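Illustration 12: MLO-like protein.
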Amino acid sequence: MAESMSGSLEYTPTWVVSFICFIIVLLSLLAERGLHHLGKCLKHRRQDALFEALQKLKEELMLLGFISLMLTVSQAAIRHICVPPALVNNMFPCKKPVEKHHAPESSHSLIINARHLLSTGESPDQCAAKGQVPLVSVEALHQLHIFIFVLAVFHVIFCASTMVLGGARIQQWKHWEDWFKKRPSQKGTPKRGHAHAHAHAIHELFNANHEFFEKHAGGFWRRSVVISWLRSFFKQFYGSVTKSEYIALRQGFILTHCPTNPSFDFHKYMLRTLEIDFKKVVSISWYLWLFVVVFLLLNVGGWNTYFWLSFLPLILLLMVGAKLENIISSLAVDVSEKRDRAEQAVITPSDELFWFHRPGIVLQLIHFILFQNSFEIAFFFWILFTYGIHSCIMEKIGFLIPRLVMGVLVQVLCSYSTLPLYALVTQMGSKFKKGIFDNLVQSSLEVWLDDTRNKGESTSESRRMEKQPMTPDSFNIQVMES
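Figure caption equivalent — predicted structure in token form:
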């Protein structure tokens, strides 16, 4: 009884309480101020997409805080729940040791049982008097609390690192964009001093287009469906995007969506759309939390669920990468077939190239892959620092090493291959993305639509513009900028 009283807040030195409270408040304020200044910096640099991603991150932190509050508040009620022993005598993460009959209980088992009873906050006879056992211990709730926090932190870190590394990879394509924009115009007669440069630029452009179609559609065997998919599968591991592919897809996009603006900065547009997609990837959707619940349910000792589940993100990532590469090949084959039919041989973006005619599915799969991979690594480190490397939940070393290798492989492959592929190939859909307009134009359009709704002056034309995506050539950008 005396020991219980000494552990209460009533008998804790005031300097200890105030010191711990000061540290917690200080760290919380530093984190809040840091996020606030980061948001101001992004606003100052007009990085609206990243600012919205930061707001999404704050929402996730608020959700984590609410989960933490719920676990803390309900802890007292949960530890008083007693259930029949049969309900909590199966589906353990670790196999229970076989009990020997007529053998005295070891001192180690006595210590574990004592810790369990103390951590539940129950008296030894409270549930036993009813012929029942506690549903869960306070210690287990605390460890689950830590796991949820670690999972969210690792997910944010993995998503941010993937976007940064993928963005750096896409940034390497900038010199291709600059080369295309700085080449002399093909219209009109070039000046005498630029005649040689003009001819050289035309020759380079012709070689790039020839290389693209020859690589993807040259010869009958390259048009074979089986050969095309096999080649697409292996190509994602080396040179996922080449100069000829970038130039060809860029031309196809501009001729379809903004034919009157051949100098459109396609590279900058890709980076803007990637920033917009980041705010979707960094969030943890309800179905991802449901996935965590299902995994915790199936993580039964002897099933090796953790090991088999580690293959899922790698398999999905390889499928996504192969599909994106195959879309590039399909575009080249389509143009070659148009040439054979004496039709206009230009790349035509279409949603029909994607699964279920929905390019957005690719982003959802990448979202799930990143979350699943961060879940694998977060679960490993949580077990490592909570129970140690020799914990039964860790399983055997033969299962542990492949999981870590696959986790690193998924992170590297997604950053340097799949994500850049996604940023380029998903522009080949039937519709362009929101990032095609710069921040000023987007804000002007949103204000204009709001004013139209508020004044009740929405004509048939304005209603059509609200329902259908506006094309870059459907309005005068100079007027909007003024």
